[in-house]
């Protein structure tokens, strides 16, 4: 841990304030098309700045596709959408070798994964081998076609969606694969007044044009700047206490939730919680992390990383309820 005396918070704060100036521009631009859904837009930015990926869960028609499409337009990046279906093959995602008769040789045809923003629509509709091809690309940030390896474009953000309503004919993502998503965001219906605006805009058919307000270079610079956001040792300890409480609740005076948890968050959980907290502080134009930042992102980072037992299911206890109990119990620095 760095010595506190050698860290000038004021200098970091100034730098972050300057580097994060584009956040407001980007949010304004997205708000031209996306009504409400502030939480989803913020989480997309956290995923983008933290070099992570997002799993979005929500019923159809909540502007999930529209959100990532709008973000790609506002960032001046490339966008591709993959509709996952039961007959999809890994080659349909990453690309394949095609025999070229003229050349009498194989040429490489790249798949839709080669874009800055990739929407994996209804990821639980395709079989495991397609899901794992996508998840490998997400993890390694590279793809192998034939005997050639290609590095994917930067920034690279995958937003996968799944519909919580239908479970028939779907292939749920295994726990180990869900863990690769930095955030799992559950989105809800818009508020009444927001939906009124949505109806009006759609009936008029007059959506404002989204302009590219941020360059890809600015995003890459911001990804580096996020690393400089200062995190005190007390905040690190707070994050670790929360993660360890998911594994050993009895050590934190939470004996009653021990039978409800089948497994706790992995070290990937603590890394992502720290990264997401830094990204949230950056979005709020601050050069240091406060406990509120951790609490703001904790549900999105941990809801898919805590396994619940049959006992919990019988008692209608969700991973959200467990997170709430832990957050209320663990001492805030």
TrEMBL record:
Residue ranges of domain ATPase AAA-3 in the record: 53-183
A single GO molecular-function term is: ATP hydrolysis activity
Keyword line: ATP-binding, Nucleotide-binding
- At the top level, the lineage of the source is Bacteria
- Give all residue intervals belonging to the ChlI/MoxR AAA lid domain: 258-326
**Which InterPro entries does this UniProt record tie to the protein?**
ATPase_AAA-3 (IPR011703), CbbQ/NirQ/NorQ/GpvN (IPR050764), ChlI/MoxR_AAA_lid (IPR041628), P-loop_NTPase (IPR027417)
Return the similarity comment: Belongs to the MoxR family.
Name of the protein this chain belongs to: MoxR family ATPase
Q: Which organism is it from?
A: Aquimarina algicola
Task: State the taxonomy lineage.
Answer: Bacteria, Pseudomonadati, Bacteroidota, Flavobacteriia, Flavobacteriales
């Amino acid at each position: 841990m760095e010595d506190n005396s050698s860290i000038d918070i004021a200098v970091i704060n100034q730098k972050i304030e300057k580097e994060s100036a584009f956040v407001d521009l980007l949010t304004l631009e997205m708000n031209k098309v996306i009504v409400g859904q502030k939480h989803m837009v913020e989480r997309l930015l956290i995923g983008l700045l933290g070099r992570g990926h997002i799993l979005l869960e929500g019923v159809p028609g909540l502007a999930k596709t529209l959100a990532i499409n709008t973000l790609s337009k506002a960032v001046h990046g490339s966008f591709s959408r993959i509709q996952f279906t039961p007959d999809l093959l890994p080659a349909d995602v990453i690309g394949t070798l095609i025999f070229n008769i003229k050349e009498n040789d194989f040429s490489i045809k790249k798949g839709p994964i080669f874009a800055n923003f990739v929407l994996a629509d209804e990821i639980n509709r395709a079989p495991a081998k397609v899901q794992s091809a996508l998840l490998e690309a997400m993890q390694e940030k590279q793809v192998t076609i034939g005997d050639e390896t290609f590095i994917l474009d930067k920034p690279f953000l995958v937003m996968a969606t799944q519909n919580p309503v239908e479970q028939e004919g779907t292939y749920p993502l295994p726990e180990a694969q869900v863990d690769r998503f930095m955030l799992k965001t559950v989105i809800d219906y818009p508020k009444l007044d927001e939906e009124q605006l949505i109806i009006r805009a759609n009936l008029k058919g007059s959506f404002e044009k989204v302009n590219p307000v941020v360059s890809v270079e600015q995003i890459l610079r911001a990804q580096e700047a996020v690393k400089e956001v200062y995190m005190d040792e007390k905040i690190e300890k707070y994050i670790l206490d929360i993660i360890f409480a998911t594994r050993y609740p009895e050590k934190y005076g939470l004996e009653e939730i021990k039978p409800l948890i089948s497994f706790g968050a992995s070290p990937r959980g603590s890394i992502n919680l720290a990264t997401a907290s830094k990204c949230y502080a950056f979005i709020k134009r601050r050069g240091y992390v406060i406990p509120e930042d951790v609490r703001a992102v904790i549900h999105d980072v941990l809801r898919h990383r805590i396994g619940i037992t049959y006992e919990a299911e019988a008692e209608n206890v969700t991973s959200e309820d467990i997170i709430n109990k832990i957050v209320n119990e663990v001492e805030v620095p």
